[in-house]
Structures are given as C-alpha cells and as structure tokens.
Write a structure and sequence with these properties.
The chain is of the alpha/beta class and 141 residues long. The protein has a domain at 42-138: Immunoglobulin-like (Sandwich), CATH 2.60.40. It is 16% helix and 35% strand. The chain has one helix at 17-39, and strands spanning 42-49, 55-61, 69-71, 82-88, 93-100, 105-112, 118-121, 134-138. Strand 2 (55-61) and strand 3 form a beta hairpin. It is rod-shaped, with a radius of gyration of 26 Å.
Length: 141
C-alpha cells in the first residue's frame, strides 16, 4: 500500500516519452485528415429550371465573397428541365449564379445546400428589361 497524502488511490505509472510522442503525432494526423475531408465534401443539389429561358452556366461562391467558380452543368432548357450538380466545399452556405442564354443572370444568395437539396430556378421578368440586368434573390432566413 502507498503511504502518502492519498493512500486510497492506486499508483499510476507514468507513460514513457516515446509512446506518448507517437500517440500525439497520430492524433494530430487524424485531426488533419478529418479537416481535409471536410474541405473536400460534395453536396448534391437538384436544379429545376422553371424559367422560360435556358440556363447555360452555373457558378458558385462563398456567401458574399463574389469569387464565383464555375460548376460543370449541361444547359438546362426552360420550362422544367432538371439536373443534379455537385457543390464542393467545406461549408453549407453558398451564393449560386445562373447565366441564361440571353445574357441575363440570376443570383441566389446565401443558399444552405445542406438543408435544401432542391433549387427551383424562378422565371425572370419579361425580356423587354435590359438584357444585362442582374437579378438577386436572398435565401437567408
């Protein structure tokens, strides 16, 4: 039995330094791998084009950044054509920019792709509006 201040506690041997260092390195490597996997997650979103015009391009950006990157998608004809696309990144919220065949664009701001996996692209105003007009819709709640 151990004589000292707490005789009722068992004596715990100290862990040797080499195994302790190996354990620490293994834990750090596991944490780095988990972080890298989060950064490369893919969220799949189904797009349904309810607009009258074809969508020719889709771009995605972190919310509010304005740094859009193109996402590969075949043209979506107006009137209900659909496709499923993958959005790559660590977060859940993105700005989605749709370019139409007449040069107009529509941006859905702050869309949560973790919560919503279906995006209905709404019809734009009539074409007598300037073709270079940029439309925005806020998706934040």
């Amino acid at each position: 039995m151990r004589a000292g201040r707490y005789p009722f506690l068992p004596e715990i041997p100290a862990m040797p330094p080499l195994p302790t260092a190996c354990l620490a390195i293994a834990l750090l490597a596991a944490a780095a791998t988990a972080h890298a996997q989060d950064a490369s997650r893919t969220h799949y979103v189904m797009l349904v084009n309810r607009a009258h015009d074809s969508v020719t391009k889709l771009s995605v950006a972190d919310p509010g950044s304005g740094a859009f990157r193109d996402v590969a998608v075949d043209p979506l004809r107006g009137g209900g054509d659909s496709a499923t696309v993958g959005v790559h990144g660590a977060g859940c919220r993105y700005d989605l920019r749709f370019a139409f065949d007449d040069g107009r664009t529509l941006v859905y701001k702050d869309l949560d792709v973790c919560r919503y996996d279906l995006v209905r692209i709404r019809p734009l105003p009539r074409k007598d509006v300037d073709a270079a007009t940029h439309f925005m819709v806020s998706m934040a709640r």
